[in-house]
Amino acid sequence: MSEPVIQALDRLFDLAASDTGQARRAANFLLAWWNAQDNGGFDLADLFGVDHAVAADMAIVFVYLGGHHGAIYPDQLGYEDKIVALVHQWRLREVAD
């Protein structure tokens, strides 16, 4: 995995761990990658609600995933703790509310 992909993922995970409208959109993107069936898909219209830099980070990740031979998930890239934390923050909280 190249440095730009690592940096984009780090920024997206950091953003998703915060509590803003952009954070929710970043979390939706990452959680759809993890398991769209359980966590919901990613609405492409969410791109209109993020800064250009965030959209660019999503594009970097999307291109990386699309160019990878076979499926690859966050846990395989060392992000298991972060993706599980997002599930707790964004999905389990929504169920509780």
Question: Sheet with the most strands?
Answer: none
Which regions are unreliable across 5 or more consecutive residues at pLDDT < 50? Answer: none
Give the strand tally.
Answer: 0
| Share of helix, binned | 55-70%
Strand content: under 5%
The overall pLDDT average reads 92
Helix count? Answer: 4
Q: Sketch the topology as an H/E string, one letter per element.
A: HHHH
Calculate the terminal CA-CA distance, rounded to whole Å: 37 Å
* Rg of Cα set: 13 Å
> What is the SS-derived class?
mainly alpha
Principal-axis shape: globular
Topology of this structure?
Layout: H1 3-16, H2 21-39, H3 52-67, H4 80-96
Helix pairs in contact: 1-2, 1-3, 2-4
What does this structure look like?
Pfam families: DUF7673. InterPro entries: DUF7673. This is DUF7673 domain-containing protein. Residues 7-91 form the DUF7673 domain. The protein has 97 residues and is an all-alpha fold. The protein is 68% helix and 0% strand. Helix 1 crosses helix 2 (21-39). The longest helix has 19 residues, at 21-39. The model has no long low-confidence stretch (mean pLDDT 92).
What's this entry about, in short?
This protein has four helices and no strands. It has 97 residues and is mainly α.
Top keywords for this entry?
single chain, 97 residues, mainly alpha, 4 helices, 68% helix, globular
